[in-house]
Amino acid sequence: MIRVGFEARKIFKGLSVAPPTPGTFSFLDMVSFANDTPFQQNAHRRSNTGQPTNFPRYFTLYETGLFVQDDWKVTSRLNLSLGLRHDTLEA
After folding, report:
1. Cα distance between the two ends of the chain
2. CA distance 46 to 27
3. Which of 4, 6, 65, 88 is packed most tightly, with the most Cβ within 10 A?
4. pLDDT band at 54 (very low <50, low <70, confident <90, very high)
5. Res. 42: pLDDT tops 90
6. Half-sphere exposure (Cβ direction) of 28: Cα atoms closer than 13 Å
7. Domain spans of the chain?
8. Any residues with CB less than 8 A from the CB of 61 and at least 6 apart, and which?
């Protein structure tokens, strides 16, 4: 008896990688630091509220699989189950 099968999945992941942070500040020297005048400031904030964000990451994976299997009776005491399977994962 020959069996054939196929499988397909769509997997969606939404992750929060880190807690909210106030951002990072870079200063050119100690005088700039003392005067609270950063050279560069990076902050991840929501555009509509100004609140810090938690670095969300979203991605989708697609998995597929195909198999063919056959059971072969060699003798009355020996059965062979032979099969082939192929799986893929695409990001």
Report:
1. 35
2. 24
3. 65
4. low
5. no
6. 5
7. 1-17+56-91, 18-54
8. 10, 11, 13, 89, 90, 91
Angstrom distance (rounded) from CA 70 to CA 2 = 4
Residue the block writes with tokens 């630091």: 33
For residues 23 and 16, give the distance between their C-alpha atoms in angstroms, rounded to a whole number.
16
Q: Mean pLDDT across the chain, nearest whole number?
A: 84
| Alpha helix positions (H), the chain | 30-34
- CA of 80: how far to CAs of 40, 73, 76, 84, in Å? 69, 6, 11, 13
* Position 91 pLDDT exceeds 90: no
Does the structure show a pLDDT above 70 at 48? Answer: yes
Domain 1-17+56-91 CATH class label: alpha beta
Quote the percentage of the chain above a pLDDT of 90.
41
pLDDT attached to residue 68: 97
